[in-house]
Design a protein that fits this description.
By secondary structure, the chain is of the alpha+beta class. The chain has two domains: 13-38 and 219-364, no CATH class; 88-163 and 183-205, no CATH class. The chain has nine helices and nine strands. The chain has helices at residues 31-52, 66-85, 90-113, 124-130, 135-165, 167-170, 189-197, 319-328, 337-364, and strands at residues 2-5, 16-30, 221-235, 241-256, 261-274, 277-282, 289-295, 304-310, 313-315. Strands 1, 2, 3, 4, 5, 6, 7, 8 and 9 form a nine-stranded mixed beta sheet that branches. β5 (261-274) and β6 (277-282) form a beta hairpin. It is extended, with a radius of gyration of 29 Å. It holds the Pfam family VPS13_N. It comes from Gossypium trilobum. Keywords: Transport.
Length: 365
């Protein structure tokens, strides 16, 4: 692995570059491993679903306070219906407006009382407010409090420097004392207007970005991965191989610009085999598959663009082998039935599309 930082401002040379070269990589997936992956995906799905309404979840057990759990169910369902309709009542708008001012003012004052701590996690009033808010609102309001406090400290430091320069004039005549930094923050209307403008704040505005030029075509980071040979196998049992995908010359690259992100994949050759025979094989040994995805390209007025190119290949339809591969991804009683069916359907669709486009290519040759 190589990592370097280039201090030149040439747009063709990246500020940082990392390159990874691998000779031989083999991945094996058994039925037990596939079942564990589905379990993990199912757990993540359930966790993300619970996380949306975690601020409504009561801290008591179901037996001790069933009434609070019924309220929790009602609030979760009503919140989901409101988000689906995209409408909020006027009372809710007023409620969130009051909570926003109270939350940001309190959180910023707690941060200012101890500038060294990055987060406030020991205040009961903040914890009670968090239970009434969605996690996205909590993150946004805390980010606003951090940003406002940062600007407030910079403004205070600037005023101190200006007053220090004029201290020779005020010496002997009395000088106005500074406000205690631990004093609670009380925002004026102008300060709230300033906070409203900060909503468009981006994470790379904290000064940690590597960008040294405002040009959109300045290449910041490049990550390249080269694999000379890689293989993926589906195992049914200890030694039985259902499918073996072997690839030669796999190159992946990621290029990061200030706004633009470019992801590229290039494959030299590939071969898909089964115990019953060869299923697919590329006709060329170089650039058999090429794909480039660009997010916010700076040379076109689109949100994203994608270019895909596939060279001719040879395909053999072996029904028994394809049925065994599809059966490998079928439902299992230990995992979510919905996730297993979606995965099996996706595999079948990909196989059908692969055979369809290959037959079209062969008809034009």
């Amino acid at each position: 692995m190589k990592l370097r930082q280039n201090e030149s401002s040439n747009s063709d040379e990246p500020l940082q570059k990392a390159a990874v070269s691998l000779e031989n990589v083999t991945l094996c997936l058994s039925k037990d491993g596939y079942r564990d992956i589905l379990k993990l995906a199912d757990n993540f799905t359930a966790f993300n679903q619970r996380l949306k309404y975690a601020h409504y979840r009561p801290s008591f057990t179901l037996k001790s306070d069933p009434r609070s759990w019924w309220k929790y169910a009602y609030k979760a369902v009503s919140d989901q219906m409101k988000k689906a309709s995209g409408k909020l009542s006027w009372e809710q708008v007023l409620k969130y407006t009051r909570l926003r001012k109270k939350y940001i003012s309190l959180y910023a004052s707690l941060l200012k009382s101890d500038v060294n701590r990055p987060v406030v996690d020991d205040n009961k009033e903040i914890e009670e407010l968090d239970r009434e808010l969605d996690i996205e609102l909590i993150l946004q309001w805390r980010m606003l409090a951090h940003k406002f406090l940062e600007q407030s400290i910079e403004s205070e430091n600037y005023l101190k420097k200006q007053k220090a320069k004029q201290s020779w004039w005020s010496f002997g005549w009395g000088s106005q004392s500074f406000k205690d930094e631990t004093e609670s923050l009380h925002f004026s209307e102008e300060e709230w207007q300033q906070l409203n403008k900060i909503i468009g704040y981006k994470e790379d505005e904290d000064g940690q970005s590597l960008m040294i030029d405002e040009k959109p075509d300045i290449l910041q980071t490049v990550l390249e991965i080269h694999m000379k040979h890689n293989a993926s196998k589906l195992l049914d049992g200890a030694h039985t191989c259902l499918a073996d995908l072997s690839c030669e010359g796999l190159d992946c690259s990621i290029k990061l610009y200030p706004e633009t992100k470019v992801f590229g994949v290039k494959l030299g050759s590939y071969q898909l085999s089964s115990p019953n025979g060869l299923l697919a094989q590329s006709a060329t040994t170089a650039d058999s598959l090429v794909g480039v995805f660009c997010y916010k390209p700076f040379d076109a007025k689109v949100d994203w663009s994608m270019v895909a190119k596939a060279s001719p290949c040879y395909v053999t339809y072996l029904k028994d082998s394809l049925d065994e591969i599809a059966k490998f991804f079928e439902s299992n009683t230990a995992v979510s039935h919905t996730i297993a069916l979606e995965t099996a359907t996706a595999v079948q669709v990909l196989l059908c599309l692969y055979i369809f486009f290959s037959s079209i290519e062969e008809s034009f040759l």
